[in-house]
Design goal:
alpha+beta, Rieske Iron-sulfur Protein, Naphthalene 1,2-dioxygenase Alpha Subunit, Chain A, domain 1, 2 domains, 7-stranded antiparallel sheet, 4-stranded antiparallel sheet, Rieske_2Fe-2S, 2Fe-2S, VanA_C_cat, iron, methyltransferase
Length: 357
Amino acid sequence: MSIFVKNAWYVAAWSTEIDDQLRRFTILDEHIVMFRKSDGSVAALEDRCPHRHLPLSKGKRIGDTVQCGYHGLTFDGTTGMCTRVPGQTNLPRSAYVTSYAIEERHGIVWIWMGDPETADPSTIFDMPQFTDPNWAVHHGDALHVQSNYLNVAENLVDPAHVSFVHPTTLGNAASENVPVHVQTEGEAIVAWRWIRDAEPIGFFKNFGDFDGNVDRWHYYYLYTPCTAMIDFGSAPAEAAIGEDERDKGVRIFALHFITPVTETYSIDRWMHVRNTALDDPQAEETMDKMFRTAFQEDKEILEAVQAEENRPAKRRPIRIAIDKGPLVYRKRINELLEKERTEDLASDPSPAFVYHD
């Protein structure tokens, strides 16, 4: 039974990862070959020839088609239909590979893994800061994590772990007992808290240049199936800014686009958007270094958790108050999976049934 939601947009790659060469990517345990066509757009095809199953990524490009390296069957880069079988003129109707819908924007390549008829580009994650000149946008890395995507995503709607996993980078002891607020009614699951009049965390000691106590915040937004946006920042405590005045402080959005590779392997492509040091490349390098340190801390925790989950369980895990966001997230994922497993034939009710709801 699939653990992956297929009718959703996933980040397949940064735009810089795809060129005119045939390159294999694995997404939701499916192998896909991608390349840039002659017009610069991205082709994404099932990476398996339907004849003898050689990966098409082992073949070669011929214009905007892909030729299998075993017997030369050739497939259109847009439709996936076979355009040539050497030695015969007829093309079997079963000679095709799946073609995936692709959208590219803001240097990110998105792929739709499910029913192409339901692929709606308007549902792709976006934010106005991507094109706002008052904000700087910077792509980070692709963090490879040997862990199930659900565990990785849950970690990104969990402010409580920051005090313990990231004590020198994104958190400190001042936040250990500060209550976490959770909102689960909207499109995103949101968890947040403010730490007032406290010592700056390591990140802002190095970058924010604060010389006294600060008010700082963490807002975690998790969108199904696995895109997270973390809004965090600090302002001088004496400014006493309100919750809706975060732009007055040093404000950063850390974005995480999680791509499930297999059941126990995920890729977290992360980037940041900031309202300070807009034209300072050194700021980007400094932030990248600090983020890499923090995310390596997450990676070690998540991979250790996965290693234990792979072993036989002696008893069910306990749940505590901070788990509200992750529990709602799991419920939403299960609802999406169940929806994909069934076909709704009641949307146009039969006249034999009279509804009084």
